[in-house]
From TrEMBL:
Natural source organism: Natrarchaeobius halalkaliphilus
Protein name: Small CPxCG-related zinc finger protein
Top-level taxon of origin: Archaea
């Protein structure tokens, strides 16, 4: 499982799948990632942890991603503009 950091809050995240998990089976098969890539209409993409994804509004913008911050290990929020 590939490891990286969240573009929103900086938490360490894991990305499910990929070449690292081609020959991994069973409980540690790499299917349980902790982040997803969010792609915007302007062509940019951001790797975000699930707490950051949950903190974004329904129609997020790149500016919303820039305002993300970690509150604790399980939640994120948007800083006030």
């Amino acid at each position: 499982m590939a490891r990286d950091t969240c573009d929103g809050c900086g938490r360490a995240v894991s990305v499910a799948g990929g070449m690292a998990n081609v020959w991994t089976f069973g409980k540690n098969d790499g299917s349980a990632g902790t982040a997803m890539t969010l792609e915007f209409d302007d062509g940019t993409d951001h790797l975000l942890c699930y707490p950051c994804l949950a903190a974004l509004p329904d129609e997020p913008s790149v500016a919303d991603v820039d305002r993300l911050e970690s509150v604790d290990g399980e939640t994120s929020r948007l800083r006030e503009p």
